[in-house]
Amino acid sequence: MKKFIVDKKYNGKKLDKFIFDSIPNLTNNLFYKTLRKKDIKINDKRINSNVTIFEGDEVLVFIDDKLLHFNFDLDIFFEDDNVLIIDKPYNIEVTGKNSLTSYVHKYYSNCAFKPMPCHRIDRNTTGLVLFAKNEDSLNILLKKFKNHEIEKHYIALVYGIPKEYYTRSEAYLFKDTKKSLVYIYDDFKKGSQKIVTSFKVLEKRPDNTSLLDVNIETGKTHQIRAHLAHLGYPIIGDGKYGINEINKKFGKKYQMLCSYILKFNFKTDNGILDYLNGKEFIKPIVF
């Protein structure tokens, strides 16, 4: 438990600003999770929202210190003068405070250009994340992702067995930022965005699970996890969109989802990255 007294500087400010300044290693995800669990007290009253605070308020934060000292060695999957591919572990965001990008910047602190991520994957999704090591590479790669000239494939262990070997599904995703959740609908709803998710069945298992190769034509928040659950194939270990009883049965505490293939299919000008065209990076993965 950590105890703080709000000083004049934060009078009338939101709680998150005060908390992040007071606890340097706190991540956005851990802060909002702590809020949802009502593990923050202001003047001895438990709260679950980002309230306004005032000078003299007593703030108690109930967070295990172990969660504030996440550390790891960068797992460099591939590197040359222009690009860097990191194999990201679970329980860390790609960007933000105390993120994968933060660790990359520390590791390359002596470089004039700090490597920048070209895409993101969820905090508890593991696997390959592509970084650019110079401004030219960054501009090229961001354009390539936008034009769908870089394929990202994910491998997922799901509960249930699809009838077809290949499925391409269109749906609509609505993002609820307050709850940090997304909802999937078969038909358009106000505020929703169209999504397209495709998958192939790599393996059918006798315990009613399947190994899927997943490709998304649209990259929306939690798209794979929520869309597969909507189709009746929840990812094992997924605490948000999965089934708790199934997760417990298989003893998985985070989603069995990994970004395991990056494939470069350039169709437009490649500049200094022309040598990457046609290359494929595959991470061996066993679920």
What does this entry show, briefly?
The chain is α+β, with helices and mostly antiparallel strands. The chain has six helices and 15 strands.
SSE-based structural type: alpha+beta
Shape: globular
CATH class term of the domain at 154-259: Alpha Beta
- Quote the beta fraction: 25-35%
Order of helices and strands: EHHEEEEEHEEHEEEEEHHEE
Please give the radius of gyration in angstroms.
Answer: 21 Å
CATH superfamily of the domain at 154-259: Pseudouridine synthase
Uncertain spans: none
Averaged pLDDT, please? 93
CATH-derived topology of the domain at 154-259: Pseudouridine synthase
Total beta strands: 15
Protein described:
The structure is a single chain. With 287 residues, this protein is an alpha+beta fold. Among the domains are: 2-68, RNA-binding S4 domain (Structural Genomics Hypothetical 15.5 Kd Protein In mrcA-pckA Intergenic Region, Chain A, Roll), CATH 3.10.290; 154-259, Pseudouridine synthase (2-Layer Sandwich). The protein contains six helices and 15 strands. It has helices at residues 15-22, 28-36, 100-107, 135-146, 223-230, 244-250; strands spanning 2-5, 40-42, 45-47, 58-61, 76-79, 83-88, 116-117, 126-132, 150-159, 166-176, 181-185, 193-204, 209-216, 257-264, 280-282. Strands 5, 6, 7, 8, 9, 10, 11, 12, 13, 14 and 15 form an eleven-stranded mixed beta sheet that branches. A four-stranded antiparallel beta sheet has the order 1-4-2-3. A hairpin with a 2-residue loop joins strand 2 and strand 3 (45-47). The radius of gyration is 21 Å and the shape is globular. The relative contact order is 0.12. The model has no long low-confidence stretch (mean pLDDT 93).
